[in-house]
Specification:
Structural class: alpha/beta
Low-confidence stretches: 1-17
Radius of gyration: 21 Å
Largest sheet: 7 strands, mixed
CATH superfamily of the largest domain: Metal-dependent hydrolases
Number of strands: 16
Shape: globular
CATH architecture of the largest domain: Alpha-Beta Barrel
CATH topology of the largest domain: TIM Barrel
Mean pLDDT: 94
Helix content: 25-40%
Order of helices and strands: EEEEEHEHEEHEHEHEHEHHEHHHEEE
Number of helices: 11
Strand content: 15-25%
CATH class of the largest domain: Alpha Beta
């Protein structure tokens, strides 16, 4: 049964206030202007910011959230998460051990952890159970479960046995059909499957352009989707007023995906100078999970993850970080994406320190998770900033993240749509 498409503004439920709400901020980080303001007050009505000004006298009896002891900034955005799925383990068949119903509850738990960590918006780039992310998005929007605003892709568009498939188990094991909703064999199949994804309510499309580090039987440098197949997906998405991101590790696959018109590249682990220049020329985003490699190396070795996964991680981690540093210097648009779900949800902010270590200023790292990420998602008018007109999505932290970006790993308060949720 087809799911009904939801109007875009339905993705942003608000909390209606009978009277204005005022938030006092001791320090306010404004990523749009790249500056910090002291002693500010934000006026919120119907879940949106309507005014920002120097703190001062407020109306008698005003409803006030006093964050004057904290640094306040927009709610953070992670452009690469997997909420509606099991976390990575040493068992390649783990996704087959959980029912679709159980995945729904797991997704709800992960969504709450993510929100409590200060990430009020996410791009969920796929789960093995088709449309699990779509249903989670809808449940959050209805108020059934707490969680961030979600942009969902529904399923991985991948070749048979490719980087978006459950692989590594006995060949006589049958994989459920809902785990293969995005498996494609040719260009016509891509057009058909991508249209079906949109008909079932997805926001954007995720292509698996190359092999994957964490899928057995695939190699990161190997191209899996042809340029014609990727262009077919891009064409359908454009017709639908949407866009496409591509999982691509290898340099040739990255170039092919960019030439095919994708808006963003996930991972970009083995990107070369030509790929960086092409991304810059096309105004594409790179979404590089440069924390992830250390987690895989440490926990994967400790817990006995498959040897080929650990080998591929070793071959890509430092190369990815070198490419990230080059991309920063080149001025490529770099969005904040972590691949949460490989590591535990709620630890998303650990990547900030890596982004600073590998070339960004703290302000650039914050912008990558606010204004830059919002632009990638097409949500700049609603999230990623706290200027008038934006949703009142914001966090409060102790200390100064511009001096020590790791304070973002310890979010004290979270507001979403004018409601304090932490």
């Amino acid at each position: 049964m087809l799911r009904h498409l939801i109007p875009v503004f339905a993705f942003f439920p608000t909390v209606a206030h009978a009277e204005p709400l005022y938030v006092r901020a001791g320090r306010l980080i404004d990523p749009e202007a790249g500056q910090v303001l002291s002693a500010q007050v934000l006026q919120i009505e119907d879940g949106r910011v309507v005014a920002v000004r120097a703190d001062g006298a407020l109306p008698a009896g005003a409803k006030v959230v006093d964050w004057s002891a904290f640094t306040v900034l927009p709610g953070l955005i992670d452009c690469h998460v997997h909420l509606a799925d099991v976390e990575q383990s040493n068992n390649v068949a783990e996704p087959l051990l959980h029912s679709a119903m159980e995945i729904g509850f797991i997704g709800a738990r992960n969504a709450k952890k993510t929100l409590m960590a200060g990430f009020t918006s996410v791009h969920d780039v796929g789960s093995f159970r088709a449309y699990a992310d779509v249903e989670l998005r809808n449940a959050i929007n209805r108020g059934d479960v707490p969680g961030p605003r979600v942009s969902a892709v529904g399923a991985y568009v991948t070749i048979p046995g490719g980087g978006g498939e459950v692989t590594g188990f006995s060949p006589d094991v049958s994989v459920p059909g809902d785990m293969r909703a995005g498996v494609v064999t040719d260009t016509a199949d891509v057009t058909r499957k991508v249209n079906a994804l949109f008909q079932n309510g997805v926001d954007s499309i995720k292509l698996i352009a190359t092999g994957a580090v964490l899928a057995q039987g695939t190699e990161p440098g190997q191209i899996e989707l042809s340029g014609e197949m990727m262009k077919a997906a891009v064409d359908v998405a454009r017709q639908r007023g949407s866009w496409v991101t591509a999982h691509a590790h290898g340099a040739a696959g990255i170039r092919l995906a960019l030439q095919s018109g994708v808006k963003a590249i996930e991972h970009a682990s083995l990107i070369d100078d030509e790929g960086i220049a092409l991304a810059k020329a096309k105004g594409a985003w790179l979404d590089m999970d440069i924390y992830n490699g250390d987690f895989i190396a440490e926990v994967g070795k400790r817990d006995g993850w498959p040897a080929d996964m650990l080998r591929k991680n070793d071959e890509t981690t430092e190369a990815q970080r070198a490419g990230f540093r080059k991309a920063v210097r080149a001025g490529v648009k770099l969005s904040y994406g972590t691949d949460a779900g490989v590591f535990p949800h709620g630890l998303n902010a650990r990547q900030f320190r890596y982004m600073v270590r590998f070339g960004m200023t703290p302000m650039q790292a914050i912008q990558s998770a606010t204004t830059v990420a919002a632009e990638l998602l097409g949500w700049s008018k609603d999230v990623g900033a706290v200027s008038p007109g934006h949703y009142a999505d914001m966090i409060a932290v102790e200390g100064d993240p511009l001096s020590d970006v790791t304070v973002l790993e310890r979010v004290v308060h979270v507001m979403k749509g004018g409601e304090v949720v932490k």
